[in-house]
Amino acid sequence: MRAARDRRVLLAQASAVLGFFLLWEGASRLGLADPRLLPPPTLVLPKVAELLADAGFRRHLWVTVRELLLAGVIAAPLGVGIGLALAESPYLGRAFKPFFHFVAAVPKSVFLPVFILLFGIGFGQKVAFGVFQALFVLVIATAAAVAAVPDELLRLARANGATRWQIWTEIHWNAMLPLILEGLRLGMIFNIAGVIFAEMYVSRAGLGQRFSTWGESFRMPELFAGVLIAAALSIIVNETLRALERRAGAWRTP
Amino acid sequence: MSLDLAESRQAPSAMTQDQPAIEVRGITHRYQTGRGEVLALRDINLSVAPGRFVGLVGPSGCGKSSLLMMMAGLVRPSEGSVAVAGAPVTRPAPERLGVVFQEASLLPWRTALENVAFPLKLRGVPRAEREARAGQLLHLVGLKGFEHRHPHELSGGMKQRVAIARGFCQDPPVLLMDEPFAALDEQTRMTLGDELLRIWDRHRKTVVFVTHGLTEAVYLCDEVVVLSGRPGEVLARIEIDLPRPRTWEMMATEHFGRLREQIWSLIRRQA
Predict the structure, then answer these.
(1) How far apart are CA A94 and CA A79, in angstroms?
(2) Across residues A221-228, what is the average pLDDT?
(3) Please, what is the average pLDDT of chain B?
(4) pLDDT reported for residue A136
(5) Residue of B33, B118, B48, B41 lying closest to B75 (CA atoms)
(6) What mean pLDDT comes out for the span B181-202?
């Protein structure tokens, strides 16, 4: 019964993907869209394989992946640390939390020129901009995660003589982990957007640099193939974190 | 299966025999709100003999739960003190005082078994030992076979059973219960009340039981302490001289009704 339903869902999803590519192919072949602007998937998909086989392209891809990972590795402890400090110290929280909410609301792309002046146009600038993009949502998510720890469980732990450390490891850690992972996941989405955008704006290497070059020189099959690769990269990062989030928060879904 | 909960405790000495299990001396409590100071409790004096089942009732907001939290060492009173078996309580002392809260307060990421064993884990008792004990307690509260369920897989009544088992886990001589059945439906409440009495009858802990259910108070307790409305003061201590074991038929007796009426008339004048 259940297996049959799962099969039907899978079938529907497969048809949707197939239908999407068929529509795309059809639109391009039948002249509904200009094939010079929208090359058909039969042209784009082989291009994906071609690009991945190309050492020059792989070097660009690897630059972007390293920028993303390093920015993530810096942003995660920094964001969680600031979030914890804001949530745990009533003074710090009241004084500085509003600023994080304010800056979180501002589109980060407007700061990109400042980052170029501060960090140049190389690897370090992309990482710094990625960290900047990811940080705010992570700080806000962490502070919210602390606030979401149920008081009744803290009281229970105290009534049973838990030490401060035990209260953190037994209660806070477990209650907060799924929410922090959610913040991290959203942060990584911002991080990817930021890094690729910074590369497109000005850079010597990276996926974004390829995109702008291809766009300007009208190389549409490469551009669309690159977009598919960037999409796959983001989806892999997002789904990995989502799987971790589900495991850590299995107790949340009845 | 018999479970000797008393084996890990030292035999009560002659001195502790005639010493009250709990002694509340001159507790007065005030707290600050945005609109000024509130006097919550005024000069509460109370002494509970070992092995007694004592109820604490009063109009809502009278501070009965606060008083219990002070006995548990979770809230410090503005004035006065609490002593358990003669030793002052200034902070939580789980080996002397077990607490069962109104919300079952189970860790949602742990199984029933791990929840019962949680207080022992905090004390560093090895896993095998603490889980063996938790397993016996789950059996005692009728949850054999549910050891590895998570709280979201249990009904409200089952969760509260787990919480009661956890209260017994460290085998404390005193059990403080803060409206433990308030969130349950009538039937579950009655059944759990009976189970609590059955366990209590076997292990004879001192129980302080906060409730707003007067029938429940009369049915379970040896004595009911009635608090007044804010500021809470001890209005009366009513001895419940119904024989034990208690049976449901007793509720229909005239005597039961009179005791319940007596408490109700005291509270009604306050409300």
Answers:
(1) 17
(2) 93
(3) 87
(4) 92
(5) B41
(6) 86
CATH code: domain of residue B47: 3.40.50.300
Q: Are residues B261 and B153 in the same domain?
A: no
Q: Out of B108, B118, B150, whose CB is closest to A160?
A: B118
Q: Which of B230, B196, B199, B225 is nearest to B210 (CA)?
A: B225
**CB within 8 Å of chain A, chain B residues 7-66:** none
Kindly list the distances between the CA atom of residue B173 and the CA atoms of A32, A131, B36, B205, in Å, as whole numbers in the listed order. 83, 55, 39, 5
Q: Which domain holds residue B73?
A: 32-96+174-271
SS3 content of chain B, % helix, strand, coil (to 5): 35, 25, 40
Decide if B229 touches A, using CB distance below 8 A.
Answer: no
d(CA B55, CA B180): 12
Q: What is the ipTM of this complex?
A: 0.84
Mean pLDDT value across residues A107-134: 92
Of all residues in chain A, the percent with pLDDT exceeding 70 is 99
Is the minimum CB–CB distance between A153 and chain B shorter than 8 Å?
yes
Structure-block tokens of residue A56: 């020059």
Q: Which of A152, A155, A160 sits opposite B119 (nearest CB)?
A: A160
Residue B6 located in a structural domain:
no
Domains of chain B: total: 2
Note whether B131 and B184 are same-domain residues.
no
Task: Give the gap in angstroms from C-alpha A173 to the nearest C-alpha of chain B.
Answer: 11
Distance CA A92, CA A129 (A): 25
Alpha-helical regions (H) of B40-155: 64-71, 112-122, 127-140
Q: Domain check: are B209 and B229 in the same one?
A: yes
User: Chain B: residue nearest A251 by CA?
Assistant: B109
pLDDT over 60 (residue A51): yes
Same domain, B58 and B184: yes
The predicted model gives A231-248 an average pLDDT of: 93
Q: Using one digit for the tens of pLDDT, what is the confidence trace for B11-32?
A: 444 444 578 899 999 999 998 8
In this prediction, residue A193 carries a pLDDT of 93
Min distance A241 CA to chain B CA atoms (Å) = 19
In terms of domains, do B40 and B126 share one? no
Task: Work out the angle at residue A139's Cα, subtended by the Cα atoms of residues A137 and A142, and round it to the nearest 5 degrees.
Answer: 105
Residue tagged 């299966």 (tokens): B1
pLDDT band at A253 (very low <50, low <70, confident <90, very high): low
Residues B184 and B228 in one domain: yes
Q: Report residue A106 as tokens.
A: 């501002």
**Average pLDDT for B93-107:** 89
